[in-house]
Amino acid sequence: MAAAGGRFLAAAAAYSGRAGWGGPRRSPAVPLVPCRSATVTRSGAILPKPVKTPFGLLRVFSVVIPFLYVGTQISKNFAALLEEHDIFVPEDDDDDD
């Protein structure tokens, strides 16, 4: 997003004829036209669709399961730390009415 803003500001400065905030006015040699270089070539031809890599279930599980395990270990250790320092100690509720 920041790169797009920078390109926009550069194009606006070139269009207005200013080199910077206080630079001299001069006409641009080549008028700047915004283009999406990711979808077209310099000549204007549309690029072919990119090759899609299938995102299989094996890849999803190979990322999700280890991070879930690490998250549970961190939370378990933090809960033990809180209980050890008597910051948060769960009360045993006997609801035998």
What does this structure look like?
With 97 residues, the protein is mainly α. The chain has 2 helices and no strands. The model has no long low-confidence stretch (mean pLDDT 76).
Mean pLDDT: 76
Largest sheet: none
Gyration radius, in Å: 29 Å
Residue share in helix: 40-55%
Element string (H = helix, E = strand): HH
Q: Strand pairing plus helix content: what structural class?
A: mainly alpha
The total of helices stands at 2
Percent of sequence in beta strands: under 5%
Residue windows where pLDDT falls under 50 for at least 5 positions: none
Which properties best describe this structure?
single chain, 97 residues, mainly alpha, 2 helices, 44% helix, 0% strand, elongated
Summarize it.
The chain has 2 helices and no strands. It is an all-alpha fold and 97 residues long.
SSE inventory with pairings:
Blueprint: H1 2-16, H2 57-84
